[in-house]
Design brief:
The protein is globular. The protein contains twelve helices and 16 strands. Helix 7 crosses helix 8 and helix 9 packs antiparallel against helix 10. The strands form five sheets. It has a six-stranded mixed sheet, sandwiched between helices. The protein has a three-stranded antiparallel sheet with strand order 7-8-11, with helices on one face. The chain has a three-stranded antiparallel sheet with strand order 12-15-16, with helices on one face. It is an alpha+beta fold and about 400 residues long. It is about 35% helix and about 15% strand. Belongs to the peptidase M24B family. It catalyses: Release of any N-terminal amino acid, including proline, that is linked to proline, even from a dipeptide or tripeptide. Its EC number is 3.4.11.9. GO terms for molecular function: aminopeptidase activity. Its cofactor is Mn(2+).
């Protein structure tokens, strides 16, 4: 609210419950913005903020679907007005049927409306969301008002984490650790990728996670060279590696881990050499995540480290580097994705990449080397918190990553 223009209103909508077909729906997942601002994790909820409203009771208003005994029996208990205040700290709570009437009054006082459009750099949204329908309706109903954007404010707010948020991400990482340690004693030749997924799901849910923070990637052998391989339906063969990009959520906060392990419990010498090269890149890249660092420049520096490692592995030679296209450097043949992204309520979380890094931002660090000709790929990924001074704090510091530790745990 402190960042809003004078005499302005901002509205935030819950997500829809999305239909599949017949009477089937996808499980409800709350829009992260209204959850971040209010703590309300319920469909058909609306948050209205009006810092300069003429009456104090109008400055924060929550609208909820009206509940009753019938709904409680068929769908489960929904928020009452009293419970909504306990959850959100917002005293003024109306039922949703009063929204248009209350909004109309607020519009007579206000000059500017903040609409909440999705401007995330990875967003490709074809489905019309509840938020998008509201924006379309509002523009038709109130064409004389000025329009402003909530997203740049939220990008800055959400990218710098509160201590409570870091605690929740840490808890999600700790649940992920339990799942990974469980796997190290489970994986053996001829196990299937989906059996590994089932083991993880079991461990996550029994620790009060709702499950995976994102669609899990369990890619054995050459499947690891498909960056977003999600079929998870192949048998894991002796001698192969398994790339596991898998992590738990907790209280709507994500963790995001990648580890690569040997099906047979031992890395070959070649696999070990490539693995340790990726690990060295990860460790050096992590040290660069400090206040003031620019994301684009950071990736250029990581590319230099990766180039050196690929030369050492014989995957590149000096001529490849000397003749490289600056727009697509030679190392990109084997490491074609970015090294880090913001993380939090969304796995690819909010954060303005053209602005310098700040303390308490949370980033992934996830270099990889992918070698289709040798039928394996290796990626390693941790989640770290940028500190005021020095290297970032690794939220996955307790999750095994060294070759010796992984081999020992797999052969106990």
């Amino acid at each position: 609210m402190a960042e809003m223009k004078p005499n302005s209103v901002a509205v935030f909508n819950s997500n829809d419950i999305y239909p599949i077909s017949a009477d089937s729906t996808l499980p409800f997942a709350q829009h992260r913005d209204i959850f971040y601002l209010s703590g309300v994790d319920q469909e058909e909820s609306v948050l209205l903020l009006f810092p300069d409203a003429p009456y104090e009771s109008q400055r924060e208003i929550l609208f909820l679907r009206e509940t009753n005994d019938h709904i409680a029996v068929w769908e489960g208990e929904k928020l009452t007005k009293e419970r909504a205040f306990q959850v959100s700290g917002i005293r003024t709570v109306y039922w949703l049927q009063d929204f248009h009437k209350v909004l109309n009054e607020m519009m007579t006082y206000a000059e500017t409306m903040y609409i909440n459009t999705n401007e995330h750099y990875r967003a490709t949204v074809e489905t019309e969301t509840r938020e998008a329908r509201f924006v379309k309706w509002w523009k038709e109903r109130y064409p004389a008002h000025n329009v402003a954007k909530s997203n740049p404010i939220l990008q800055r707010l959400r990218s710098v984490k509160e201590s409570e948020e870091i605690d929740l991400i840490q808890h999600a990482c700790d649940i992920t650790e339990k799942g990974f340690r469980r796997l190290l004693g489970f994986v053996k030749p001829n196990v299937t990728e989906y059996e590994i997924e089932a083991e993880l799901a079991h461990e996550f849910i029994r620790n009060r996670s709702k499950g995976f923070a994102y669609t899990p990637i369990i890619a054995s052998g050459n499947n690891a060279n498909v960056l977003h391989y999600i079929e998870n339906n192949q048998q894991c063969k002796a001698g192969d590696l398994i790339l596991l990009d898998v992590a738990a959520e907790y209280a709507n906060y994500s963790s995001d881990m990648t580890r690569t392990i040997p099906v047979s419990g031992r890395f070959s010498e070649r696999q070990k050499a490539v693995y340790n090269a990726v690990l060295r890149v990860k460790n050096e890249a992590t040290k660069m995540l400090t206040p003031g660092t620019l994301w684009k420049q950071y990736h250029i520096e990581v590319g230099k480290i990766m180039t050196s490692e690929l030369l050492g592995l014989g995957l590149l030679d000096k001529a490849d580097v000397q003749n490289e296209n600056p727009e697509w450097p030679a190392y990109k043949k084997y490491f074609m994705h970015g090294t880090s992204h913001h993380m939090g309520l969304d796995t690819h979380d909010y954060g303005l990449l053209h602005e310098p890094m700040k303390p308490n931002m949370v980033f992934t660090v996830e270099p990889g080397i992918y070698i289709p000709n040798e039928k394996f790929g290796i990626r390693l990924e941790d989640n770290v918190v940028v500190q005021e001074k020095g290297e970032p704090f690794n939220l996955m510091r307790n999750i095994p990553v060294e070759v010796d530790e992984i081999e020992t745990l797999m052969n106990e």
